[in-house]
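Complex record, two chains
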Amino acid sequence: MTEPIVQYQDVHKSFGDTEVLTGINLDIEPAEKVAVIGPSGSGKTTIIRMLMTLEEPTSGDIIVDGKNLWHMEKNGELVPANEKHLRQVRGNIGMVFQHFNLFPHMTILDNCMSAPIHVQKVDKQEAKQRSIEMLEKVGLGDKLDSYPNQLSGGQKQRVAMARALVMRPKVMLFDEVTSALDPELVGEVLEVIRDIANEGEMAMVLVTHEMEFARDIADRVLFLDNGVIAEEGPPAEVLENSTNDRLQSFLHRFRT
Amino acid sequence: MNSGNWQWNTFFEAFPVVVEGLGITLGLTVATYLFALIFGFVWTLLSAIRITPIRWLFRWIMEFIRSTPPLVQLFFIFYAWPMVPIVGFALDPFTSAIVGLGIHFSTYIGEVYRSGIEAVEKGQWEAAKALNFSTGQKWSKIILPQAIPPTIPMLGNYLIIMFKEIPLASTIGVAGILNLANSYGSANFRYLEPLTIVALLFLLLSYPSAILINKLERRMNRRFDKKEKSGSKPLKEEKEGAAS
């Protein structure tokens, strides 16, 4: 058995008085592709946002590549992580957002190049080379000097993926990346994710409503309900043969 | 006070005398504005402090400065500050004017900065974090380049408003155009022409600036419109979400 790249250990998360996650335990293997499904409000997005350090867990630990994400050791004791520690561990993780969140004041190329140059201190020429290659891979090699507002939603999302991939994360998070797109643009984005998934080496966690797609590319599907992982397993098992009533009625809505 | 009282020869005689003060008036405007731009940023930082009582304290101080007449602040700095025990010291009129008016207008400028920063979408902060930018890089490369340009017309408006308050400095003896016009008036018992010159000079300078800023504002708005139109529907939803 290889060491998991990410481990959630009894992770709880509350917003005010509402407990959204009530004890998440989850190991993600390197290169594993995990799809997270569930009704809205079930906390699926919160799970990956905590891993990206956009939300802090109320309790529990998240271990990334053997390092505790939200806690660090100080004089032999575990204390809440400071920004320096968070930055160190966060470097393993990349994320693509529902609303793309491209930097509107930068060209497509600069959107991709700036983090490698300033964060990872990659040589400028090399960062440029890498970014161009990545943008070509997502089919936008001819848009290098365009600005985000000149692109379609699908193109923006492909840039966002290139931007995250250039950082070469060990884990990539996809937060409902097709939900904000016009239906005819969903395909091109899923196509790119499929290509990335097929390359294999990176772990991926996809929060998605695309059941067909989840079945195709995921090694494992998690069904999140009432703050816990209510059902998990290979796609065929979870999406077709589960006896969980809540899952059945959730899936039913997608079959019409 | 009949119209026959207007004397062109007085006008032409007073004109060079009054214009002499234009350098001081404009210099004071620029210096005060720079002071306000820099000090405004300090207010923005102070009112963003995460410790709530301290943040409230600074917001309250800002509110206090804004609700007090600039003339009172000017007098305080020039006449009262030197008498404050231990920390007080005397400032010359020009410096007093920069500090007094500069602090007053910096509270408005600070609000402008804050509105610009708050207008940057939440997703931009999250993307900056996801790409692991340091705090300094996040501000210098992602947030400020987006927050500042839309505020430029507003900052320009404050420049004009401030320019029109600059003659307040004549009350503590800064030899700007109003002060010189006044001296000319009392020396020659003729106020109509020199004060008309002062009004004309202000009009001549602030009206074109206002037009320029109006143009700038329209250009900024157009840029924003373009962004809105080409943005996909969900972008709008996101804005509503951020507002709620």
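Note: The CA atoms of residues 54 and 68 of chain A lie 16 Å apart.
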